Amino acid sequence: MKYVDEYRDGKLARQIAAAIRAEAKPDRIYRFMEFCGGHTHAIARYGLEDLLPANVRMIHGPGCPVCVLPVGRMDDAIKLARRPEVTLCTYADLMRVPSSDGMSLLKAKAEGADIRMVYSTLDALRIAREEPGRKVVFFAIGFETTTPPTAMAILNAQAEGLKNFFVFCNHVLTPAAISALVGDPKAAASVPLDGFVGPAHVSTVIGTKPYAEFAEDYGKAVVIAGFEPLDVMQSILMLVRQINEGRAEIENEYIRAVTPEGNVKAQDIVAKVFELRDSFEWRGLGAVPFSALQLREEYAAFDAEKVFDIHTVPAKDNPACECGAILRGEKKPVDCKLFGTLCTPDMPMGSCMVSSEGSCAAHWTYGRFRDAQNTKQETRKAS
Amino acid sequence: MNAPRLRTRKIDVKNGRVDLTHGSGGRAMAQLIGDIFREAFDNDLLAQGNDQAQFDMPAGRLAMTTDGYVVSPLFFPGGDIGSLSIHGTINDLAMAGARPLHLSASFILEEGFPLADLQRIADSMGAAARAAGVKIVTGDTKVVERGKADGVFISTAGIGIVPEGLNLSGDNARPGDAILVSGSIGDHGVAIMSSRENLQFETEIRSDSAALDGLVGNMVAACGDSLRLMRDPTRGGLAATLNEIAHQSGVGIRIEEDALPIRKEVAAACELLGLDPLYVANEGKLVAFVAAEAAEKLLSVMRAHELGRDAAIIGHVVKDEHHFVQMATSFGGDRIVDWLSGEQLPRIC
After folding, report:
1. What DSSP character marks residue B19?
2. Neighboring chain B residues of A10 at a CB cutoff of 8 Å
3. Where would a tag sit more exposed on chain A, N or C end, judged by fewer CB atoms within 10 A?
């Protein structure tokens, strides 16, 4: 497959792995966080951990939009979907996310709620057009990558005069979340990070500039990287070199798609339709100021929160669930008592197990054989 | 499907639709069965016209299976619900090494379903059965009100004869056994997805829907003594099948990503849709576990058959108390190939 296979070349990967091994200083530990779930998924799916030396450690960050969506917003979505006049359009990832009372969109659908899985906002617009008697709500979620299509859908609906299309907006912002991780002294102390593998698709929209503060103000190395496994390997090598050379800069590995300015047209559309929320709750991070978007007043007619009078009630996670600590990089999936016992991809308790990009789901699905190997080695050592 | 033949005007297949009288047991039902099904399936046992088919069985062990078909859309590149309902049941018999003999077919029809489509489906079933040398010997038709089904649902059951001395079973895999797949994986699922109206995606991929009894016959004849088991990786794809076997046999499995036959078009479609070909359904492929020393011989026998041209040895069985299916990725690392969780796309067969 052209333009894909080139970035999955095992031979090249082994060369980069050899360079990382050669250049990583044996007397220190390198701790890098890959922010995005897409990177977490690539690391697990292609077995990249097998290629890295033991002192280069990847810490999985909170960059999975499904994982950071607070439970209260799932409760809202289910309540919306149960309204007889509403058709809720959602990406499939959200179907199995548990709500505070153990419901999910999948279960609500089985009970009769009109919930449709869509691949894009265009599908939701089409449904609104074809079924004028239904109030079609698009469950909008995601980082900066999926925000422009939502903004475009609202503009299209306005231009067409569609009166039955609404957006339940849960779009969140990447730089704000990274700030919460590096700017909070408590978080920074519990998870000392040397650098970040920066977002791929998000950066195609916002460019590399918004990350400058993490290098300049917080002294973190940042390398923007694509989602293919070679991209990730190359970015890790670039991070190791920055640390070794005492640099803290924004570097761009993903030059085939990302520019410093990003996609200005997309940014303009987003700015036209959305404005910053004062604060938004992130699962695992708590309330993060200016970290999410809401529809501007002039688009209130499309805003499901206003039209359906939604007031989110914060809901508590299962007390044993470690999603929060895992999303902050403080704990690994295996540190959670629920992991692999009560919480599996088939019966997810926490959000990190639901989306394939969640660190628990990625580790369970692709990497849990390593836990078995580690246990064996420890048993051998003990005896 | 046992109503007497009536001397009346033929039903209007071209413009007619299924209505509730077609399931009522009256003349309309008899006519539907006579004009559409009996003609399409035409054979001596069905022609007996009884509530059951009666026939003598050759000596030996019997294999029996049943399966329901609810695929959407009903017609897709490379097949339709009719041929699929024959191939799927034949393949379930063939995976025991059995020679398929007779099938039954049961239809749930939705009021309003076009008779022309029903005719097309019945013809497709008849052709698929004849091509595989099996007979549809008995059947049933029910009609439900509009909105209570989706066009047509088909259920088929089948019986076959297992050759003497052959004992293929999911608990037979042993460490060291070689694992072969008969051809490219994921074709059926991607063909279905690309023909769904909400996935507007043009591709050349056709379903691999096919009856595998001929290929299996050659495999059993050449390597029957060394064969451990066979299975057709339908829903849940190759990943589900390998996990089933690992658990049933109490073993681990190691496969090589580089060895998996995957068509470029399927790989590209999966890439775009965020799917993994390992989890995408097949309807004309089989996985065979065989003693390591017979692997090369079996591979050449499979490749000599039209439906096994792209066969490959994809891995082997290992000892593993966790019963993991692991894959050496093309990239150089290892990963688990887990069961599918949730549903990639519903109503694929």
Report:
1. -
2. 329-332
3. C
Closest residue in A to B341 (Cα–Cα): A346
CB A277 within 8 A of CB A294: yes
Angle formed by the axes of helices B81-94 and B115-132, nearest 10°: 30
CA of A356: which chain B residue's CA is closest?
A: B341
Higher-confidence residue: A379 or B104? B104
Q: Which domains does chain A possess?
A: 1-317 (3.40.50.11740), 323-382 (no CATH)
Contact assessment for residue B324 and residue B239, using Cβ atoms and an 8 Å cutoff: no
Pairing of strands A86-90, A135-142: parallel
- Which residue in A8, A50, A376 has the most chain B C-beta atoms within 10 A of its own C-beta, making it the best mutation to test that interface? A50
Residue B5 predicted with pLDDT over 80: no
| List of residues 6+ apart from A302 with CB closer than 8 A | A154, A157, A158, A165, A166, A167, A295
CB contact under 8 Å between A10 and B334, yes or no, is no
Among the residue ranges A72-81, A220-229, A363-372, the one predicted with the least confidence is: A363-372
**Considering only CB atoms, which chain B residues are within 8 Å of A229?**
331
Provide the residue type at B244 as one letter.
Answer: E
> Residue B178's closest CA among B244, B245, B235?
B245
Whole-angstrom Cα distance, residue B76 to residue B285? 18
Angle between the N-to-C axes of helices B213-223 and B295-303, in degrees from 0 to 180, rounded to the nearest 10:
150
Q: What CATH number matches the domain at B178-336, 3.20.20.70, 3.40.50.1580, 3.90.650.10, 3.40.50.620?
A: 3.90.650.10
Closest CA to B92 of B310, B299, B252, B241: B241
The answer to whether B335 contacts A8, with C-beta atoms less than 8 Å apart, is: no
Domain boundaries of chain B, sorted by first residue: 20-162, 178-336
pLDDT value for B346: 60
Measure the CA–CA gap between B14 and B12, rounded to whole angstroms. Answer: 6
Q: Determine the Cα–Cα distance for residues A261 and A251; give it in Å rounded to an integer.
A: 14
Nearest in space to B338 (alpha carbons), one of B319, B320, B324, B322: B324
Closest CA–CA distance from residue B251 to any residue of chain A (Å): 14
Which amino acid is residue B124, in one-letter code? S
Q: Out of A14, A45, A118, whose CB is closest to B335?
A: A45
| Nearest-10 crossing angle of helices A10-23, A229-244 | 20
Q: CA separation (Å) from A381 to A375, A376, B319?
A: 10, 9, 22
Residue with tokens 């439906």: B307
Cis omega (within 30 of 0) for bond into B58: no
Average pLDDT over residues A38-44: 91
Strand extents, DSSP E, A193-245:
195-198, 221-224
| Least confident range of A77-86, A251-260, B44-53, B172-181 | B44-53
Contact A67, A355 (CB under 8 A): yes
Work out the minimum CA distance from A14 to partner chain B, whole angstroms: 7
Which chain B residue lies closest to A346 (C-alpha atoms)?
B341
User: Which class does domain B20-162 fall in?
Assistant: alpha beta
